[in-house]
Amino acid sequence: MIRTPLRPLARILKSRERGEDTHAIEAENLRLRHEAMRDTSRLRAEGRLLVLGAMFAIAFGTIGMRMGALAGSTPQEPQAAVRGNPIIGQRADITDRNGRILATNLQTYSLYAHPQDMVDPVYAADELVKIFPELKLDKLLADFSGARKFLWIRRQISPEQMQAVHDIGSTGLLFGPREMRLYPNGAIAAHILGGASYGREGVASAEVIGVAGVEREFDELLRDPAREGEPLALSIDLTVQAAAEEVLAGGMSIMNAKGAASVLMDLHSGEIISMVSLPDFDPNNRPHVLTTGDQSDSPLFNRAVQGVYELGSVFKIFAVAQALELGLINPDTMIDTKGPLQWGRFKIRDFRNYGAQLSAMDVIVKSSNIGTARIAMEIGAERQQDFLTSLGFTKATPVELSEAPSGAPLLPRNWSEISTMTISYGHGLSSSPLHLATGYASLLNGGTRVEPTLIRRATLQNGPRVVSEAVSTQARDMLRQVVVRGTASFGEVAGYEVGGKTGTADKPKENGGGYYDDKVITTFASVFPANDPKYILIVTFDEPSENSGAEPRRTAGWTAVPVAAEMIRRTAPLLGLRPQVDTSEPIGVTLTSN
Amino acid sequence: MRTVLYLMAALVVMGLAFWSYQENYKTRDALGEVRSLHAQIGANHERLRMLRAEWAYLNRPDRLSDLAELNFDRLGLLPLMPDAFGRVDQIIYPLPDILPIIIPIEVNSAPVARGEDAL
User: Fold this and answer.
1) Phi, psi dihedral angles at B32 (to 5 degrees)
2) ipTM of the predicted structure?
3) What pTM, to 2 d.p., does this model score?
4) Which residue out of A182, A228, A566, A567 would a mutagenesis test of the B interface target, given it has the greatest number of B Cβ atoms within 10 Å?
């Protein structure tokens, strides 16, 4: 930088020549220099201020933005670890005893509408009715043009329907994810599974809750996230259940019955392998509960558990077994069967006259009401009540169905001597087929009580002893003789040694006052194989009538027994039971040589 | 000496800060990965469920019995009946292997005469 001198020589000399004061020049130059210095330092100060200001602005701006971001965002806890998989929190599957799926979930979508967002509600309504024919056009139009801001159109839709609704292109039609309970096997095991529906529902999700059957009974367990989606394994065998339903449905149509039920139970573990009640329904599309009339006419009614009927002669074995247990009789004791047996104003008759006396074995084989009533008189009301209680006949079955408590047996108000006599042959006490299966299982498995269960169990039940093993064997032999030479001769299945007892009971009139003449409940309670019992099968028909003969036949021997035999023929091989065939030579390999 | 100590301490603090900064970010990355894996597991789970449901639906007893009926000519499937159980003496002995040919026998047709038509 060239510094301007304060006293430039040229100007000084000139002003001296003119005789002026040279200090003025110096002062002037000094002033100019000071002004220049002032200008520079101001410029520098201004620059510094600017930089400082910018720094402050950036700093405060950053803080302000961060504060704004924190205020605007949802608070989140800092996370240092991840908990279990959140996806497997859905309702668990239900499977059969072999792991085949009976109920599962599917991800579908629900369809709802925001009418205020619609551009052309009329077009949207038109197109929606084309996709879902069950919607009413005028109702949709009224909803879309009214004051409503939200409405459900469909709770669940298929992917194809969803695409079709997408193609309408309306901005007011929206989808929400939705879990759907699917029963892939349709009506099979419908009464056991029950069904599911939606509880609290929102746009983003909906709660699936069980409404009947095991779905309701195990609702909390199925929804428990701690189980991580582990399926609930039932004791049902899907194949056996399907075969039993097929046979029973066929039998029901041949026998012209109003309804039918069957229970197949493992008599050692109490596991119910198959339980059918017809007519049935599709749990995917559960029908509505009847609002009028008799609930037992609804397909939702589970005859095997809820249907309490007077089951008739199938009860005789209990009276005889108890008498055997008490040592009152043995199978060969002769029982007086002279009829009719008069007690007060009641008369007990037999189906036909069996002569003056029968052995205890033949009382069962020929099914004599009089003989059983006489045995029951010896037992007495109290002991009979205790025995039937020990077999579970006085309480609702503890089976794991939400309907089970409604299947409580109907007991006589006053367990008098006449009640004792009628109960001994199955009248005056109404119980469900499942009660009967439980009673037979407890009696015939060696004499220990079993509880019916629908859950697969690995262990056998070691319940309290009901009768001794010897009595259990004697009862089994008697039941075998009923099939061999008694009322259930159609029940013979080659290779499976079926034993059982038939029961034909007149239906009581609904409004009291006696029994119908032409309406019966027929039951066949069977055990197979009789020499080493494994399964109990109960088959019951409601109002059957077998019309192939000259006059309709309604006894159990003509209706329930052949169907039960067919069911055993179909299901026993599926259960892995090998038929026991008598061969003239021992089975084995015969070596031949010549 | 003291200066060196101070310097070392400062360096250690800086090193630790650097390390914890890195660990923090690694953890966050890992968490992000877990989340995306969970999403993947969820999607696969959903798919598996769908496939299982489809399998169960296609194997429902009603459909299988209909199919067995439709294809009876080809497959001849019947419901499993007690007579399906066989006995051990119904099984034939395993057939012995064919013995190796030790002395081959030459089988020739008569030589064709020259000029004669082979046919």
Assistant:
1) -60, -40
2) 0.72
3) 0.77
4) A182
